[in-house]
Amino acid sequence: MLSKDIVTYSKIRYELRAYICYLFTQNIKNYMPATSLESILTAIKKIKDEIKAFDCIYVLDAKGNQISQTITDNQNIRENTYENFSDRAYFYEAIKEQKCIITNPYPTQINGNLVVTSSYPIYTPNHELQFVVCIDIPLKDAINISSPSRFYDIFSNFSIAMYFCLSTMLTLISILLFVKGVGSFWTASVHFRSFDIKEVFEATILLTLSLAIFDLVKAIFEEEVLGKNSGDNHRAIHKTMIRFLGSIVIALAIEALMLVFKFTISEPDKIIYAVYLTAGVAMLLFGLSIYVKFAYGAMNKDDRN
Fold first, then answer.
1. Of 27-31, 78-82, 134-138, 172-176, the least confident
2. What residues form DSSP beta bridges with 72?
3. What letter does residue 116 receive in the DSSP assignment?
4. Are 138 and 150 in contact (CB under 8 A)?
5. What's the domain count of the chain?
6. Are residue 214 and residue 156 in the same domain, yes or no?
7. For 181-211, what is each residue's pLDDT tens digit?
8. Residues with Cβ < 8 Å from 180, sequence gap 6 or more?
């Protein structure tokens, strides 16, 4: 399961990369003969004042050795001058891509908090690697930098609160259906010799609907409130919809069967209504089978891609 911050970051990653690359390219000129460590450090001060939300900024040489002091306001970050970072993804990926890159979130060695690193390779006029400038940004700050507007957090928190309230109400409905279904079953069990078969059907329908609603609530609560994600959002949505719709079809099929028994015994002239309901259930089942076919076909196509 992926945390909500990571899922949110995956959506705004390209906007964040565009912003960081803009800062790098506007302040540090690439492929220029006069590019020196001193000029880069001067440019970093401007970037520092612009971005503000960062863990640290540092410069590596062509071999991955840190050749500048670590620019940071975090007192827990130790000085890594002359330490080698050539095995880090943000170093060799920047060299491979030959452009500004931004990494996936990863935990820091200091406190384990998630950060992302953006790195910018600097070349000589002869296209020889000279420096790699790196900036570490806490994941939450990276998300805030690329938020669509200043109301993003307010709306996000309001959305979570609404999903929580709706999930709570649906859970209560599911519990009420469950209790009522258990009550019907208990009544049928106590009066076993004289019970009405209608009570058994009602208990089955109520329990089936309770299961369907609870399964839907579980998916909503995990994804929207807890912020968890399986990593395959489309597959999870299709699976939840199939289970929910399947439960509804089962409940309607049981109701249709109950009406067939009822009208056959007591009101034969109304059995046509049970036939109509049965036909409707058959159409729903046919539609669900088509949905399953195309849904799983789309998922298999995504897996192949």
1. 78-82
2. none
3. E
4. no
5. 2
6. yes
7. 888 778 777 766 665 666 677 777 788 788 8
8. 206
